[in-house]
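Input chain follows. Return structure tokens only.
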Amino acid sequence: MARAAPKPHKSYAELASLLAQRGMAVGDAQRAQRKLSQVGYYRLSGYWYPCRASAKDEKGRQVIGPTGTPVRTNQFQSNTIFADVFGLYLPDKRLRLLLLDAIERIEVHLRSVVAHEVGYHHPLAYEQEQFIMPKARDNYTGRDGLIHNQWREWSERQHKQLSRSREDCILWHRNNGKAIPIWVAVEAWDLGLLSKYYEMLLGSYRQKISARFGVANSMVLKDWLQQINTLRNRCAHHARVWNQSSSNILADLQHDYWTDPIRPT
């Protein structure tokens, strides 16, 4: 099937004019063009999207799209001001930096706990499938019609990250021909790789790790780590955090899920 032609390229002046034509109060046109050039039209569009008027049917009722959200028109609601829209962008940028600082503490702590709890049983546990749930070791057919295996694919990703790492501790082991224990290997893993390893572990190991974080149900921690990793990736790639939602429902943080955690200082 042939693809539809892309939208035509527009200059910054044309983009600012387009916003004005659709009902946005642009104000200082030169400043608006400068901000569009610095940040980008489509990055900013996520902040003005809620300001677009909702589509109505012939009876004046709001039109709901297939995703369950209101269908928006290209016209802006009254009193939509460019300066106000950009005013949302700046605190969102600061929020991303704050979130990265918080997530860094979680990621580093998780590395340490996983390495300690699993490494106690074997220094090379991350290479050995007996630590992994049978389900994660079984082949399955994905939506793409291909055969997949979580453990095998994770091991390949892990090997690539370890091979690319330039951390001094990893280079020392590699240059001296020494096997790399898990408490060294984790320094090369990103949060996605780390949280996936936790998810694939046998329940007894997951439980020991989750208890260190004060979480009684190890699967609750798994779900939260997945969401934290998604959030971390959005922050790391400078994507919008404000007004974002997730289709994955997390457990409420009720008392029953928590034990007495060993928290980092």
